[in-house]
Specification:
The chain is 28% helix and 17% strand. It is α/β, with parallel strands linked by helices. It has a seven-stranded parallel beta sheet with strand order 8-7-6-9-10-11-12. A five-stranded parallel beta sheet has the order 2-1-3-4-5, covered by helices on one side. The structure holds NADPH dihydro-nicotinamide-adenine-dinucleotide phosphate and oxalic acid.
Length: 326
Amino acid sequence: MVAGAGHAPPVLLQKADCMTLLYTSEAERGRVWRDIFAAEAPDVGFMTPDEMRDPAAVRYLAAWDPSRELLERLTGLEVLFSIGAGVDQFDMSKLPPHVRLIRMIEPGLIEGMVEYVCGSALMLHRHFIDYGIAQREHRWDAIKLVPAAARRIGVMGLGQMGQAVLQALRPFGFPLSGWSRSRHAIEGVICHAGPEEMDAFLAGCDILICLLPLTAETRGILCRETLSGLPRGAALINAGRGGHLVEQDLPPLLDEGHISGAVLDVTETEPLPRSHPFWDHPRIILTPHIASSTRADSGARALIANIRRLQAGLPPDGEVDRNQGY
Ligand code: NDP
Ligand code: OXD
């Protein structure tokens, strides 16, 4: 098409228009992202560190935990996209103040979490920890069924994950509650907010689910004092971060019977050291931080959508408030 012939001129990509996205995460996901970017966002130059010729041209970085050295070389960096939902892995003090931090919000990540947490909650509700112990002791002992209507489930963190989990749990008929920093109104859920309502929230949780981000305020929030505020025999699911739980406080509460079981997807040190007491505790079910992860296809598309929002001057999804830490 000829410019000036009554049609819009062709959009020729000048070097300055070609935004570079540097990807520094898993190779397998990277291959999927490369194809999706090539097909759906060819104006964004997708590259991996070994392909990077001009670090100063990198405008976007998609990473889990970039090194200080890398960040120092990316002098033109404008936006850091977290590959995951959490951002506690970043040392925010190392990030130049003008670099925007955006976490991952994408349907695959939420779906995985819903499956993990709902599966765990149902397993705890139906006494699978006790049945596991009975099986190892060759005991055929039935435990009286508790109706869902009599098992109260509470979720700490009413964000993307917490709300999706609550929505998925609703059809089972569990009485549901939630706790967050600011007040929420969610149909069918008793919502509590702030430290002053935490005791009331905890007192009403037979199963407590932690889906908080790890911040200065939430570190160590699952400790002897708070867990003691749960009704006797309550169970815990932690799919937030290992740093939420004061690990040495849990085994005594399990041994005393105050807590009946715990499903832990995250631990303070990952991988969990082989000598850690959690491995052998009969009332703990451990998984290696697999509750959910960013799905390659939907994650790439969520990132492209966010780049488009940024280009249009619109607020992106999941921008992190560095002062709040999430
Ligand atoms: P969001 O940012 O959407 O939601 C965070 C929620 O936590 C909000 O409701 C927020 O309150 C609440 N919150 C934050 N600080 C406090 C506080 N001090 N007191 C009370 N409530 C607080 O996060 P997501 O739901 O997307 O993800 C939550 C976390 O899940 C991630 O940060 C990550 O750690 C974890 N995760 C774990 C995975 C795994 O595989 N184990 C996978 C993905 C995520 P408010 O609504 O008022 O802002
Ligand atoms: C995440 C995670 O934060 O995988 O996305 O834990």
